[in-house]
Structures are given as structure tokens and as C-alpha cells.
Amino acid sequence: TKDINRALGIARKLKAGTVWINTYGMIDPMSPFGGYKQSGFGRELGKYAIDLYTQIKSVYAKIG
Q1: Which domain holds residue 45?
Q2: pLDDT tens readout for residues 23-50
Q3: Which residues are bridge partners to 52 per DSSP?
Q4: Which pTM does this prediction carry?
Q5: Helix, coil or strand: residue 19
Q6: Which of 40, 5, 7 is nearest to 23 (CA)?
Q7: What confidence score (pLDDT) does residue 26 get?
Q8: Into how many domains does the chain fold?
Q9: Pairing of strands 18-21, 58-61
């Protein structure tokens, strides 16, 4: 999409561990990785790997 504000609004509403906008497969070892509900058991990587009680989301966007 060209509308980054709309894309970020949708990303906030998604119950997903990782969201990519206009890109795919980017990861950062400092950013948590994992799914929600039955798609994952907690998070791997980053400081959130030990915090099983949060719902963290990574949003990656290619702008420009």
C-alpha cells in the first residue's frame, strides 16, 4: 500500500506476532519473533523472549 498510516492502523488491529508491510521476511535479532494463540508458544529472540505475559508485535514497513 502507499498509505502507511492505514497500513499501521491495520497492523495495530491484527493479532499477529509479526507484520510485514510492503516487504517480507525481514527480521532483526533484537526484535521478538513468535506467533499468537496456537501459532506459537511465546517469543524467541530479543528481551521479550523471557516475558511470557505480553502480547508484543513487530511491524516492518518498506517506505519509499
Answers
A1: 4-61
A2: 988 887 777 666 666 555 555 666 656 6
A3: none
A4: 0.53
A5: strand
A6: 7
A7: 82
A8: 1
A9: parallel
